Amino acid sequence: MKIAVTGKGGVGKTTFSSMLSRMFAEDGYRVVAVDADPDANLALALGFPREVYDSIVPISEMKKLVSDRTAAETGTFNKMFKLNPKVDDIPEQHCQEYNGVRLLTLGTVDSGGSGCVCPEHVLLKRLCSHLILQNKDVVVMDMEAGIEHLGRGTAQGVDAFIVVVEPGERSLQTYRKVKKLGSDIGVKQVFVVGNKIRNKDDEDFIKSNLEDGEALGFIYYNQDVINSDRSNQSPYDVSTQTKDEIKVIKDRLLQIKENKNK
Ligand SMILES: Nc1ncnc2c1ncn2[C@@H]1O[C@H](COP(=O)(O)OP(=O)(O)O)[C@@H](O)[C@H]1O
Ligand SMILES: [Mg+2]
């Protein structure tokens, strides 16, 4: 099961990704959670202790790893470097594990504008493809808004793109953009998870704005989730209600995966 979670900033991508990862892990799956947002904070949402969180070095900042694997000296963009660096051992060697979830933090690629190909970028992209295309249990990627940064092969290997939306026009706009982009690169299934829902009206509002898309489920606005962020706990450890809502979504994902394999 390979899932990429995207959506507008602040909608709850990290909250959802962390809870889904922990739930799969609790069910006994081997889970790799990928923090692919330059503004990385998935580790905290997963409940990693502060010391571990503070010690995390994103892959893109591992200068030696980047230059060893791509045979490039970092910062020298006009030099030749490998476009197919070895990455298969990186997940084992550079992830942190807590609560049964293995976390990979990718970091930022300062590419100086779109279209730039730099060693860090090549390595991260290849690492993502590797994670998606290999035959492992569960990969959950907490992404920035949009899916441009995924290559076609990677995107097609993903079982579900999940766009987290709030009951509001702005995040639905992001959903439509992702859906359009997805269909441009051959991704058929882009699903929605409604978050910060207050009532049935909110659910209906989202449902009525999905065109032919499907909402996998709804997560209600929950003070416990906010408080978990304040007290630096994993939202997974504080709310049974939210967990129940995540379970509905997880079960639907498994059902979709099963139908796809038929
Ligand atoms: N269901 C929810 N109920 C209440 N607050 C939520 C809920 N989901 C997310 N939040 C809060 O919204 C804020 C943004 O969530 P986050 O997961 O970091 O969003 P993103 O990763 O999309 O930027 C956080 O303070 C989080 O605690
Ligand atoms: Mg986030």
UniProtKB/TrEMBL annotation:
CDD domains: CooC1. It holds the Pfam family CbiA. InterPro entries: CobQ/CobB/MinD/ParA_Nub-bd_dom (IPR002586), CooC (IPR014433), P-loop_NTPase (IPR027417), ParA/MinD_ATPase (IPR050625). Residues 4-233 form the CobQ/CobB/MinD/ParA nucleotide binding domain. The keyword Thylakoid does not apply. It comes from the Bacteria. Gene3D superfamilies: P-loop containing nucleotide triphosphate hydrolases. This is AAA family ATPase. It comes from Romboutsia faecis. Keywords: ATP-binding, Nucleotide-binding.
